[in-house]
Amino acid sequence: MNIAIIGASGFIGSALRDEALSRGHTVTALVSRPERLEARDGLTVKKADVQQTERLANQLQGFDAVLSAFSGHAQEDVAGYFAKGFDSILSAAKLAGVKRLMVVGGAGSLEVAPGKQLIDTPDFPAQYKATAEGARYALNALQGQDDVAWTMLSPAAMIAPGERTSQYQLGSDQLLTDANGESRISVEDYAKAMIDELEEPAHQNARFTLAYA
Q1: Is the pTM of this model over 0.90?
Q2: Could you give the CA distance from residue 96 to residue 110 in angstroms, rounded to a whole number?
């Protein structure tokens, strides 16, 4: 497929980029600092600013799918910056007639009990709260519109570099844990699950999640 990845040089975006390229997809990396990425077979790198909606809309035209790994974690007002940026991405996707918008979500909006999300629990780490608020905002924005076909993949509570095991469980809106009550996934397995969804859609206009069993 011919896909665009917003934020393709970031922590999760890099894994998505590498997984897609390894499967033979053509990738256009839309990044704020293109000098961070070297040209390679199947990869085109373009400078993009998610806050410039009309310009971004022009850049999003003609792809089979657009993957957003946009993150505002380096900004002072993380939640506000992310909300503004994601609104622009969603608007640009609508203007561009994007066929499928696939979004990197957060674990904070997953339920730990009926009606109770992880982000709203007392022990949720303060340093991750603003980022989680932004991801929850994105989920609500996607659910509140029907102009763009979308999918969001929320990771387990802990996502870190590791191995591509291909051995994990999938779920929908509830936080998944293993036998010890831990919720973990490697960024490599996260990327595999996202590109699997790209190739064989099973969660259209829905959010899903994954974790080790």
Answers
A1: yes
A2: 30
